[in-house]
Every structure is written in C-alpha cells, then in structure tokens.
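We include this case.
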Amino acid sequence: MIYYLYDPTYFLVLIGLLITIVAQIFVSTSYSKYKKIKTKSQLDGFEVARKILDSNGLKNVDIVEIQGELTDHYDPTRKVVRLSSHVFHDATIASASVAAHECGHAVQDKEGYFFLKLRSTILPFVNFSTKAGYISIVLGLIFGYVNLLWIGIFLELAILFFQLVTLPVEINASKRAEEFLKKEALIEKKEQDGSKKMLTAAAMTYVASVVTALLQILRLILIATNRNDR
C-alpha cells in the first residue's frame, strides 16, 4: 500500500505534465503576442490562405471559418482549410503564420507527402488503440492482471508512433509556411522573424506530446515489470 502512495514512477508523470504545460504556455504567449501585431500587407488569414493555395494550384480547396482559438486545421478528406475566427478575419503576424501553416498541409496532401499519407492511414487503428489501450491499462491496474497491462502498453505504442509520424508532418508544414510567406511577399522581411518564432513555438507542442507519451509508456513498463517480479 505504501508503494502505491509513494510510487516513484509518479515522477515521470510530473515531468511529462511540466513539459506539456511549458510547451502550451510557450505557444499561447507567442500567439497572444503576434496576434496583436498587424502586418503591413493588411492581408487577413483568409486572404493569405487564398493566395497561397491559388499559387500552388489548389483553387479547388475551400477556406472556411470555425469557432474557437487555435482550432485551425486542414481536412484532407474534404479538401478544406478551416481557420478560427481571429485567424480568418485578422491581418496579423499570427493569422498569416497559422493560415500559411495549414496551407502547408494542403500542399503536402497535393504532393502526396509520405508522412501525411501514413498518418491518415494509421489514424483508424490509433483511434481504436487509444480506447482499447486505456481500458486494458485501467483494468490491468485495478485487478492486477499483468498480461492485460502489457496489452495496454503495446496498444499505447501505436499512439506514440502516431505522434512520431505527426512530428515531421507539422515541422514540414511550418517550413513550407515560412517559404510561402517569403516567396509571395505576404509579410515583410522584418515580420518574418516573429512568424518563425510563432511557428517554432507551435512545433514544440508536438515535441512535448512525443516526450510525454514516451514517459507515460516508460512508467507503465516500470509498473508492469515490478508486478512481474512479485
């Protein structure tokens, strides 16, 4: 009983939590800063996205407004770039950067970018693994079924793999965004530094997700190994 109250593996959970919080603070503060700085071009997120898509032969890709903050994403099944209200309407460094990033995913889709295709392919299995893995781990811990716990751990590895695949997808989209903004002269040279900082901050959240998932799996492995030794 004392072991579970003072389980040393909780330290791994704490590290993962701190990494996630720091990454979220980093991206939130960066976004808050650059969404207040207007671009000299005075192009809002919709206009930036439309120019990038059109210049890359993607006039068939629609751009729609959605609610929320930092909810922006590209839907490869419907071929739609979805931008949150602030990004859609505001002419700021943050809006231009986010819009360009999502267009980066659209261009990846058009070019058949390997990691994007791989992510879409494994997504159904990952969704299953997320639910089944959680159930297996909880039941394994509650009833002491070590084999069930190991099954849950292996299912959780699918989530880690998905996050590892997502990492190059997001980093590549950010690099494309920087190139688009520069090539199309959508923001001025002195504004590009702020855009790069914001895109880097966003990428760090995905790095944090990978590290956190890895630490969680390591913790579960330590728990399962400890129970095997009993």
About this structure: The chain has eight helices and three strands. Helices lie at 2-5, 10-34, 45-55, 85-89, 93-111, 114-143, 146-183, 189-228. Residues 2-228 form one domain.
